[in-house]
Amino acid sequence: MSEALQTPRTLLGPEDPEPVGLIDRGDASPFVLICDHAGNAVPKALGGLGLPQAELDRHIGIDIGILGVSERLAEQLGASLVFQRYSRLVVECNRRVTSPDSIALVSDGTIVPANADLAPDQRAERIDEIAAPYHRQIVAILDRRAEAGLPTILVSMHSFTPSLRARPFQRPWQIGLCYANDKRFTIPVLEALGQEAGLVIGSNEPYSVDLVKDYSIPVHGEERGLPYVEFEIRQDLIGETAGQEEWAARLGRVLPAAHRDFTVSAA
């Protein structure tokens, strides 16, 4: 990460990992990939948030399997990838700071002890040192492309649990696409996915984009006017390497096909 993207630190220490993961492949590809929940690191000073590691390893702490898919997909597309190494339980990088669950007190039935009764400066530390550098790096790449006059497709990568503990229900979708007002690129992606045999595809399932609470797609996509797609892949399908390779290969077929249709329709 460049010096311009660094933030003075009072929370993260020398033994803590950098919050921002970056694979910068330049700007030849039309795609830029982002991964808000790639990791489940916790700053050493926060003592694991008062949780056992098994909780941090659950879907509440990390989007299981999605980094492996994202890295392989970015390589296939020749695209850059920006990802977050810290757990969403430390600070939720896909929430506006005004959202009540930007630092969750409870997640899928699990109480997060270290998130209770935070002082304003403690909240600010997490936002300033973890969430803000991640989004600055995304902005840096998108600005660079805009200044060069390069069309950009933003690809947001997520995974979802097959069933929530708090609301048990077996989610049937293997992959879902989440969107808000701008469906320009989502529609051709849905059509391209429909050509893949045997998929159960969710349209704004199991989640949708909330323009008031969410951050990444509303700010980097909708507010910039960039076409985008947000994927949610079911975690039991990508928990192992073979599944990650399979889904990266699938999306590596789908995205270029959708981009060809998108480019033709926009001409």
From TrEMBL:
Signal peptide feature range: none
InterPro entries: N-FG_amidohydro, UCP029730
Domain of life, source organism: Bacteria
UniProt-annotated stretches for the region Disordered: 1-20
Official protein name in the record: N-formylglutamate amidohydrolase
UniProt source species: Kaistia defluvii
Organism lineage string: Bacteria, Pseudomonadati, Pseudomonadota, Alphaproteobacteria, Hyphomicrobiales
